[in-house]
Amino acid sequence: MDTLVLFVDILVYALTVAIFARVLVSWIAVGSGGNNPLVAFIYQVTEPILAPIRRILPRTGAIDLSPMVALVLLWLLQRLVRLVA
Prior knowledge:
This protein is mainly α. It has one domain. It has 3 helices and no strands. Helix 1 crosses helix 2 (37-56).
């Protein structure tokens, strides 16, 4: 079980960093042309998590709340795994 907890901790940490990076990239509009491989990688990693949340959340205008919801869900998953293990 310790291995599962460690795996989930690392996964949640990596996804948290990727989501924060995506938010920062969206604020400063780096690589908006799509030619930046790092930005493309960040979008590839985070889009499978954020897209389903965006479909469920109601529209809030220009503010995208899906990263915040994704972070809360990731942290809840981490807590749940630690509680069960």
